[in-house]
Write a structure and sequence with these properties.
Blueprint (H helix, E strand, L loop, with lengths): L3 H6 L5 E6 L11 H5 L3 E6 L3 H10 L4 E4 L3 E2 L3 E7 L12 H4 L11 E8 L1 E2 L11 E4 L5 H6 L2 H4 L4 E7 L10 H10 L2 E11 L18 E10 L9 H15 L2 H14 L6 H9 L2
Helix pairs in contact: 8-9, 9-10
Length: 280
């Protein structure tokens, strides 16, 4: 990656990424571009032993991974599923799961582990939190509610949300949206939308081929840039870097540069220079 945009913005420090549920099952993480470029450092949390071991084996110099289950600070049971990406602190809702029978083999619970969760606000290993990626199968709302102090300085969150809940008492998208808006974030884009076929229909002899039913999505929230007086220069710089490098959001990056130029934090003509650097 060309680091000219970073050099142009000249942030005071690296972007601090926190990854809650770092299990590497869904391909590369969204922050990989800034990690590969040395623009960030990552603190990841993964309570499943095999997934944590894999993360430890492949980590680079800017990564560390810890075995904590992040949540509300209480004691819970972690239901380990055959498909590790379905493991959750919530028990599965079997009535709902049967509507998406292709998922049933992955949802088989093969172990149950007692865990004491840690509140995000209580984790001393986190000094700064600029960008949160979270995917913990229904536990996201508890992390947000118990991490409001740490999240007060964050500029971007990528979280999984559910339209149809697969777990008992799992918060749905509306509850997540209400909490994050209350913390000063607004939706920016969908990083991924996950659809599954409703049983018993099978399209083109492929039981995994979906039609229209929404199940889950990875959605990106950003600090509400319509209220720039509530954001520091450093926050605007980090948001610009994340928006451009992780999501291709040149418009949001340019908006941050415009605000910095208006403040006098970047020289006159910064917007034009930004567009040249980003190839827009």
């Amino acid at each position: 990656m060309n680091t000219a945009f970073r050099d142009f913005l000249a942030p005071q420090r690296l972007i601090d990424v926190v990854d809650v549920g770092a299990n590497p099952i869904d391909g590369e993480p969204p922050y990989l571009p800034i990690l590969d470029a040395g623009l960030c450092r990552v603190t990841g949390f993964e309570p499943q032993a095999e997934a944590l071991q894999e993360l430890q084996l492949r980590k680079g110099p800017y990564e560390r991974y810890l075995p904590y289950a992040v949540g509300d600070g209480g004691a819970h049971t972690l239901n380990i599923c055959r498909g590790s990406g379905m493991s959750s602190l919530f028990p599965l809702d079997m009535d709902t799961l049967r509507m998406f029978e292709v998922l049933e083999p992955y949802a088989e619970v093969i172990d149950r582990i007692k865990v004491t969760t840690r509140r995000l606000d209580d984790i001393d290993d986190i000094t700064y939190l600029d960008y949160l990626k979270i995917d913990i199968q229904g536990g996201e709302l508890a992390v947000f509610q118990n991490g409001r102090t740490k999240l007060a300085d964050a500029v971007a969150i990528q979280t999984e949300v559910s339209f149809v809940t697969l777990y008992e008492d799992q918060p749905a998208m509306g509850e997540i949206d209400r909490e994050l808006r209350g913390q000063g974030f607004i939706p920016h884009c969908f990083a991924a939308v996950k659809r599954w076929p409703i049983a018993p229909y099978v399209a083109a002899e492929d039981p995994r081929l979906p039609l229209n039913q929404l199940l889950e999505a990875d959605i990106v929230y950003v600090r509400d840039f319509s209220k720039p007086d509530l954001m520091s220069d450093e926050q605007l710089k980090h948001l610009a870097l994340i928006a451009h490098h992780c999501y291709g959001s040149t418009d949001l990056a340019l908006r941050c540069v415009m605000l910095l130029e208006h403040r006098g934090s970047l020289d006159a003509g910064a917007q034009k220079r930004c567009l040249q650097l980003l190839g827009a």
